Amino acid sequence: MTERVVLAYSGGLDTSVAIPYLAEQAGAEVIAVAVDLGQGGEDMTVVRQRALDCGAVEAEVIDARDEFAAGYCVPAIRANALYMDRYPLVSALSRPLIVRHLVAAARRHGGTIVSHGCTGKGNDQVRFEVGLAALAPDLRIVAPARDLAWTRDKAIAFAEEKGLPIDVTARSPYSIDQNLWGRAVETGFLEDIWTAPVEDLYAYTSDPALERDPDEVVITFDGGVPVAIDGETVTPYQAILDLNRRAGAHGVGRLDMVEDRLVGIKSREVYEAPGAVALITAHQELEAVTVERDLARFKRGVDQRWGELVYDGLWFSPLRRALDAFVDDAQRHVTGEVRLTLHGGRAVVTGRRSEASLYDFGLATYDTGDTFDQSLAKGFVRLWGLPSGLAAARDARLGEVSW
């Protein structure tokens, strides 16, 4: 019986070349699976036809835009997920969803092998393969670009030899991955970390230095989920799409960073994530108003660990599932509105309001109407500092070096 390979198909050179290569080397039929995550670019029907023209026996395009927004981007918002305090997990969030659809396709089509186009230097090989091991440990994995050191030159030569219907002459200086949540750009001259990015590598954001009037936007959250923009009810997908457009027009969400990859190397990455940055900025501010101090302090550690787990390809880990349960409970009162001004590359919070607010004007004000009993403060301060005072007195008694 002929084996079947389910290939994560992007429509680009590497995965297009993989179709006839896998058919030859594995003697298998190839089923190409392209997942629409709101990445834009080519028409997905064109991508599907290219897979068939390259030799796939079947090709599927799966519209997962709403699923990605609600099931993956929303949890990232609620966890304020920023790897290294900056990167909103553009690629990392998409991989577990693609893995789910690859496994489902393998079951539908009787596939026994799953293939991807990742190299051995990147994080995505881990994300794909650890996810596959969690969901379908019976499926074998083939990674031509990694396992056979498949270079671009080799891929171009193979495509020309086979007469594949792809433009092998169009050479982009960058490697690009994009979806609804953002856009990642690397390689080429960016590998010189002293060289500044050029304007033409950006697509989701306009130059923040351009003159334009500020844009004011009000985002409504319910339990940490964005549910309205300027009073108009939206789905998570619509919220991200709208803010990509509006925040992107002001250059919000540009990142240029040297990142710690899971495989142990440092890599220079340029990101654009206008909607993600605007939404997380607004969500963090609403949490500041509605989440109690000790819960907020603890959640910051949870948020960091959640982002690291997703970045490291451990979406399907028991720890992430457990952290989600914590985040769910912590979001019970994160309901209200945040006003942002989008301008000059920044999303600046200018207002916040919530029925669940813990902000008490009477306690906070220094003017007439102050309800804070300042007579209680003196005793509080003395008791709060008592342990430190006792330790200092002990050190002095023992002749130890003090502060």
Question: Characteristics of this structure?
Answer:
403 residues; alpha/beta; Rossmann fold; Argininosuccinate synthetase, chain A, domain 2; Single alpha-helices involved in coiled-coils or other helix-helix interfaces; five-stranded parallel sheet; five-stranded antiparallel sheet; 42% helix; elongated; ATP binding
Walk me through what this model shows.
It catalyses: L-citrulline + L-aspartate + ATP = 2-(N(omega)-L-arginino)succinate + AMP + diphosphate + H(+). ATP binds at residues 8-16, 117. The termini are far apart. The chain has helices at 13-25, 44-53, 65-78, 90-109, 124-135, 144-147, 152-162, 236-248, 274-290, 293-311, 318-330, 361-364, 377-384, 386-397, and strands at 4-8, 29-36, 58-63, 113-115, 140-142, 175-179, 182-186, 215-222, 225-229, 232-233, 254-260, 266-272, 336-343, 346-353. With 403 residues, the protein is α/β, with parallel strands linked by helices. It is elongated. A 5-stranded parallel beta sheet has the order 3-2-1-4-5, sandwiched between helices. A 5-stranded antiparallel beta sheet has the order 10-9-8-13-14. Strands 6-7-12-11 form a 4-stranded antiparallel beta sheet.
